[in-house]
Amino acid sequence: MALLHADILATIVAFAPLEAISPMMRASRFFYHEGPKALLRHGVGLDTDETVAKFIRFINAEGGTRSRYVTELYIIFDEYDEGTVMSESSAELLSGLLRTLTFDRLTTLHIDRCETTLVAYPSLLTALKGLPDVRDIALDSCGKRACDLVSGLGGHLRHAMLIYSVEEPIGAAPVQDIHPLTTLRSSHDTLTKLDVHFMDEHLPRSLYPPPFPNVREFEIAWCHYPLLSPYIHALPNLRTLSFITTFDMEDASSAVVLAPHREGNRLEQLQYGSWKSLDYVYGRVADLYISGLTCQVRHLSLHMVEETFEMLSNVVEDTRPSDLSLHTMRAGAFDNASGVPAILRQAGAAKLEVFKWDVQLDPEDKDLNLISASTDLVSCMRPLSLRKLELVFTCFDFADQIRERVRLGPTLPQSEVEKFLGALDLANLGAQFLSSIPTLELVTLEICGHRVRKHERVVVSSEGTTVTTRGDDDDDDDSHYD
């Protein structure tokens, strides 16, 4: 009987399904040794005392050499289940394992309920600090102990996600002990990506750290009306900036409430400078409005719900995008005098080359004249150097919202705008856009969520037209070309 070479056997176990590896390890001494490499490359998740015990037994087999194959460690005891917390015995056993064995390939560390765990078990904090080469860290519910861990890991971090505690106030600790920019100071040469959630503390200029020259991506989420200046100073070569709800939701439509935060940011940037340019910026209109961001943005992606079109106008004027992706969910978007057409005529939109607009119809738009609206769009876009246009009419829940407002039954007749969209020839409209705007190369039009019409997407270019249709409940496409 021919024997398989060791490299062939190693390849077999490397590509085997996870559920097959344990039986293979019991069947062969070779697989017993090679199997852990395949199992551990997918990361280790510890979510109960039982899994901690099993992990420790597994790693200690073969003289503890298996620790060299651990690359990712997730301590993810369920934060929503008060009965699921790491016990003291599990914490001590895990601490001992991390201290005594070699985990030199462990580069990813994620910990939920981080502050509570580290406060309860200082020995675990000490052991985690001893990991030699952690590069990707995500800590949930951060406080001072979690920040001590980040500082103690040395200068190897490339990606840090710090989610601060929303249950316990962190203001009791000095800001320099918990702010992400001071906490990550030792990794200022290696960090490339930073995510900061729920950090409301402002860092005084006197405490600004040296710049992080290699950070290209930054996400700031659920931070209450943040000042951008510390991050502008610390991340001078940033290319991608994402905002997630940095304002109180009830303030989204109130320029009176948001304006002071915007002015504070604008004054700081006027005095100390801003980024020269950014490749991509994402957020709600209110996020960008209060940020006061004043730099050219290549691709600006905005989501608009309660915000005013004046806010949107200010954001576009400040960022001067060449590629604008816009999702609107409020009435008046097609208003020629104050809606999106008016914004496309202002100086901030003069450099637009790509415009993608997903307009979710509002019940107040039920009598909207889309023929007139399309004419206004062509008029305001004709002077631009647009190459690509994408327009999506989203009708999901449109009828239900009208029904709720006027208290009509399930036989609600179609509104004027629904009738128009139901009969609209998207290919013809796309051809009109293409012929009316000299620089346009590609037009994509789409209708989705309509009560009586299938989801349809049309792409029109000088090379022809592609029409794709599908029902709400099927994924089969029916495409044809002209």
Please tell me the overall pLDDT.
88
Query: What structural class results from the helix and strand content?
Result: alpha/beta
* Number of strand elements: 17
Biggest sheet layout: 17 strands, mixed
Write down the overall geometry. globular
Over all CA atoms, what is the radius of gyration? 28 Å
What's the total helix number? 19
Distance between the termini: 62 Å
- Residue stretches low in confidence (pLDDT < 50, at least 5 long) are 478-482
Helix content: 25-40%
How big a fraction of the residues is strand? 15-25%
Give a verbal description of the structure.
It is a single chain. By secondary structure, the chain is of the alpha/beta class. The chain is built from 19 helices and 17 strands. The protein has a 17-stranded mixed sheet. α6 crosses α7 and α13 (285-291) crosses α14 (309-319). The N and C termini lie far apart (62 Å).
Topology of this structure?
Blueprint: H1 6-15, H2 18-27, H3 29-40, E1 44-46, H4 49-60, E2 72-75, H5 88-100, E3 108-111, H6 114-120, H7 122-129, E4 136-142, H8 144-152, E5 159-164, H9 175-178, H10 180-183, E6 193-197, E7 217-221, H11 229-234, E8 240-244, H12 255-272, E9 277-284, H13 285-291, E10 296-304, H14 309-319, E11 323-328, H15 340-344, E12 354-360, H16 370-381, E13 388-394, H17 398-406, H18 416-423, H19 426-436, E14 442-448, E15 455-461, E16 464-470, E17 478-481
Helix pairs in contact: 1-3, 2-3, 4-5, 5-7, 6-7, 7-8, 12-13, 13-14
